[in-house]
């Protein structure tokens, strides 16, 4: 495969070329063959995000269970690095930079956002590249961590591992999440919210408005509002609804 297929854009071709460099003795042509065998449909940024270490490893193993001749020596670190590149880690736009807080603001909560690009909500829970973690208060919002989800690919329970990755958070924003995965998220102590997507800061600004106004019972509880105060919130909401 000496020529780039017409359907492959520049970003996709760049990821594949860089991933091939991370794999000893594997050229771009050989990697392309493997990807075409493992990925259904067109090769693009989205389909590359579905490639796993298991996909690549099994491609380098023969029917007898032994590694193929020219591929001997490809270890787990190299496979992990190749998948990281195929997913877009370190390729293209730089990742947003997290800050270290001197102290956790009183009355704040920790919020995770599933993302694939920059500082946006655009990821599905089970396939996003990373989670952005924010400490959010009524008057404050800080990105405190950026967590790659690549390591969860090696867990027997990948959804469980993803939930555990952000188990120190209270709220999770995702574009989509399946029922079984949502159950694991809730069991971890997270409150999942599905939203079509958008800029992370804008979504969190909307959350701050709700926090400062009339938060729903689940959010009021996270904010440490007493049961008596929560009842007052609910009553005021009912009065507003009937006004």
TrEMBL record:
What Pfam families would the database entry show?
DIMCO_N, Nitro_FeMo-Co
Q: Does the keyword Manganese apply?
A: no
User: CDD domains this protein is in?
Assistant: NifX
On whether Acyltransferase is a keyword of this UniProt record, the answer is no
Give all residue intervals belonging to the Dinitrogenase iron-molybdenum cofactor N-terminal domain: 8-94
* Superkingdom assignment: Bacteria
Sequence ranges assigned to domain Dinitrogenase iron-molybdenum cofactor biosynthesis in this UniProt record? 118-208
Q: Keywords, A to Z?
A: Nitrogen fixation
Record family assignment: Belongs to the NifX/NifY family.
UniProt protein name: Dinitrogenase iron-molybdenum cofactor biosynthesis protein
Tell me which species this is from.
Answer: Stutzerimonas stutzeri KOS6
